[in-house]
Amino acid sequence: MNWQLLPQFLVTGLLTGGIYSLVALGLVLIYKSSQIFNFAQGHLLMFSAFITWSLMVQQGWPIWVAILGGATVAVLLGVLIERLALRPLIGQPILATIMMTLALSQIIQGVTILVFGGARQVFPEIFPLKPVIIPLGGDVRVVLKVALLWGFGLAMAGVAIFALFFRFTRVGLAMRAAAEDHQLAQSVGLKVRRIFAAAWAIAGVIGLVGGVIIGSISGVEPTLAGIGLKAFPAVLFGGLESIPGAIIGGLLIGVIENLVGGLPANQAIRATNPAEIAPYVILLLVLLFKPDGLFGLKRIERI
After folding, report:
1. Is residue 296 in some structural domain?
2. Mean model confidence pLDDT for the chain
């Protein structure tokens, strides 16, 4: 590794990890409210980004109006998924809901390719393209993309908002109660169906924000859904029910990915793209040695 580039790798990894953390927030939100591990979160992100791109480029809407339109579609899609696909599974085994989210991910992927095609599409300029250059002395400097700075800031804002939301609002407390036991929550008068719908709607908006940020940096294409897979190691590393844990996990995954990408390697190793493999190696290690995550809850159940 060129050690002069180490600050660049660290800072870029932190900023990229902020986007992973934002996506991980959607996963934690769904899990905390409904005990569902949502494998379709990355596909919701990708589909929302394509909708926003279409409104900007094909329909000619102003940027912020298009983002609001994309957010509306994301909310409606989240509510429809909850109502039509997951609501009938209330009280059913967890495996059934997991398989449903896997099926939804493939359906969204197929619909996206049918409607928008499989080519990469470029977003109009949302954030300033001119990077921010920070000299550190001598020939060492750090070059920051403005879009990455926005993504990091939004992720940190999301931490504060959702921490307050789950701790102090009636809806947030109801989501936490519903996650413990669907039927018990219904028996005490909680509207479990409305809680799930609200959780999926909010997760859709989180996916839209992440999709727009990533689309503004590297464009949008069907493979963008893979960003959801990189959020899984972040969520498991921090703990499935911990919002701060998801943020810390996302930041660490981003740093590790960038550091591994900067390591010297021969041509055979480089062809395998070790930076893409690194998050999943971390995932395996977490599952082996710390399956509850750093901040996850250890539950003791009577058999």
Report:
1. no
2. 81
Q: Return d(Cα 74, Cα 78) in angstroms, integer.
A: 6
Helix (H, G, I), strand (E, B) or coil at 4: helix
How far from the centroid of its chain's Cα atoms is residue 135's Cα? Answer: 32
Q: Which tens digits make up the pLDDT trace of 57-102?
A: 888 899 889 999 999 999 999 889 888 888 787 777 878 888 888 9
Cα 294 to Cα 275: distance, rounded to the nearest angstrom: 23
Confidence grade of residue 297 (pLDDT, cut at 50, 70, 90): low
pLDDT tens for residues 151-178?
Answer: 788 777 877 787 788 778 888 788 777 7
Task: Print the domain residue range for 148.
Answer: 3-289
Predicted confidence band of residue 246 (pLDDT cuts 50, 70, 90): confident
Contacts of 176-183 with CB under 8 Å at 24 or more apart are 176/32, 176/33, 178/33, 178/34, 179/31, 179/32, 179/33, 179/34, 179/35, 179/241, 182/34, 182/35, 182/90, 182/91, 183/91
Q: What is the pTM of this model?
A: 0.85
Domain presence at residue 298: no
CATH of the domain at 277: 1.10.3470
Pairwise CA distance, residues 49 & 258, whole Å: 24
Rounded CA separation 164/187 (Å) = 26
**Looking at the domain assignment, is residue 7 inside a domain?**
yes
Rounded CA gap, 186 and 202, in Å? 21
Number of domains in the chain: 1
Q: Are strands 140-144 and 132-137 parallel, antiparallel or unpaired?
A: antiparallel
**pLDDT average, residue stretch 232-238:** 84
Position 44 in a domain: yes
Can you list the alpha helix ranges (DSSP code H) found in the chain?
Answer: 6-34, 41-53, 63-80, 94-116, 146-168, 170-180, 182-187, 192-218, 227-238, 243-261, 267-270, 274-289
